[in-house]
């Protein structure tokens, strides 16, 4: 039996066509940018490759992080109109990302990873991160994961 569900990249392309037809400038511009980033990732390196849905989510997560940081920078610089545009693009991207883990869940998962690795101090943070990162992929940014691991190791 073959899987007939479209991949995330195909969904992005379909939604881009719909946004263009509906003349939704923010949505179409954001999806165009996201698909360009996906294509750039596909051709990066020595050989062209087709990205898996997990890889596409990774690309979208990076783009969402860029939007979040840009919105903060524009807000701090007193440019609310530019911050609002970045936040609108972020909202479009977040619709394609898995739900973000709350801090309590992330802390629990970090504590479990610390126990699993048998880590006793900050020296083993890398080992804990190596175990935890795949479990939270796309559901929490690296900085939040690292902070949760630090809290778990200091407990």
Report the β-strand fraction as a percent range.
under 5%
CATH superfamily of the largest domain: Uncharacterised protein YqeY/AIM41, N-terminal domain
Q: Quickly count the helices.
A: 7
Q: Termini separation (Å)?
A: 48 Å
H/E order of the elements?
HHHHHHH
Return the CATH class of the largest domain.
Mainly Alpha
Mean pLDDT equals 89
Verbal overview:
- This protein is an all-alpha fold.
- The protein has two domains: 8-94, Hypothetical Protein Yqey, Chain: A, domain1, CATH 1.10.1510; 103-154, Arc Repressor Mutant, subunit A (Orthogonal Bundle), CATH 1.10.10.
- It has seven helices and no strands.
- The protein has helices spanning 8-21, 25-43, 53-76, 80-94, 103-117, 125-136, 142-154.
- Helix 2 crosses helix 4, helix 5 packs across helix 7 and helix 6 crosses helix 7.
Write the layout of secondary structure elements.
Layout: H1 8-21, H2 25-43, H3 53-76, H4 80-94, H5 103-117, H6 125-136, H7 142-154
Helix pairs in contact: 1-2, 2-3, 2-4, 3-4, 5-6, 5-7, 6-7
């Amino acid at each position: 039996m073959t899987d007939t569900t479209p991949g995330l990249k195909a969904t992005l392309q379909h939604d881009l066509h719909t946004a263009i037809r509906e003349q939704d400038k923010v949505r179409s511009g954001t999806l165009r940018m996201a698909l360009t980033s996906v294509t750039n990732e596909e051709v990066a390196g020595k050989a062209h490759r087709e990205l898996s849905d997990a890889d596409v989510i990774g690309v979208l997560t990076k783009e969402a992080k860029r939007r979040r940081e840009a919105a903060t920078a524009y807000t701090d610089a007193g440019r609310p109109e530019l911050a609002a545009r970045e936040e609108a693009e972020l909202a479009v991207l977040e619709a394609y990302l898995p739900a973000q883990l709350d801090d309590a869940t992330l802390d629990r998962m970090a504590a479990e990873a610390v126990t699993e690795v048998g880590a006793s101090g900050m020296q083993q943070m890398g080992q804990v991160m190596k175990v935890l990162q795949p479990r939270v992929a796309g559901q929490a940014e690296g900085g939040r994961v690292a902070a949760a691991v630090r809290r778990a190791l200091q407990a």
